[in-house]
Write the structure tokens for this entry.
Amino acid sequence: MHEIAVTGSVARVKVYDRAVENGSARDVSAFILAGGKSTRMGTDKAFVDYEGRTLVARALDLARSVASGVWIVGSREKFAGLAPVVEDVFCDYGPLGGIHAALQTSPTELNLLLAVDMPFVSRAFLQYLITQARSAPDAEVIVPRSDGRRQPLCAIYRRQFAAVAERALRGRQNRIDRLFEELRTRVIEQEELEGAGFSSATFRNLNTPEELEAEKRRA
């Protein structure tokens, strides 16, 4: 992987630029990945209620607060009444198929990809992520790493990632992380995230009814 390094110490400073702070960024499109089978949840996660709203409604509101255009990647039949919908070109290939479809559709260079089942991501974090992407113009991917794992479903991709994704999908490969080895990737390490005020809890997702109930009790 061609990781793009960031030098210097991590400081607890405000890192967002004014254009992003003041509203939706015109140079960023956002895509909510909602095409999963939700097997472990037992029902479509997108429509699971959490704190009075469905997960897809929460994700849409969040994405609209930082991006000029917002799409759902999933079934047009399910989601057409909520937002513009993008359907996979390569079906049943998991999140990589959704990322590829999103980037093929996108009108902008910077693209936020966000899984529908990550309700703890904040607007402040997405603003931070967008600012990091703008400060790394040579990176095709800007991805956080937390608890030792990259978070490719809460990351920013430039449109050229679509070509790499398509080659992998045509070769029946759907592992996203493997593709980072071929690209210039800006990894935002956990130390940086914590220095900017973001914990690993940002990336918790809801996969099972038990996890959902646990989070409701914690709230």
The two ends are 39 Å apart (CA to CA). The longest strand covers residues 25-33. The chain has a mean pLDDT of 87. The chain has one domain: 23-218.
